[in-house]
Fold this sequence. Notes:
Elements: E1 32-35, E2 39-47, E3 51-55, E4 60-64, E5 70-72
Amino acid sequence: MTKPPALKRHLPTSPFKARATPVPPHLAVGDQVTHDMYGLGRVIGVEEGIAALVDFGSAQKRILSPYAKVTKL
């Protein structure tokens, strides 16, 4: 398992704009989502700020926040 690359610190004197950190989608019970690996699913449980339990039909998976591979439909 590989770690995601570390973000570099933005220097206040830099002439370039700071990178915007992506906001994770707000998931609620009943939301339909798609996952890069598991496909189409429906949220059946949410641990606010920690994880979401998603039913993909053939399996139920606990997806950890910030839900990097999940897209809310």
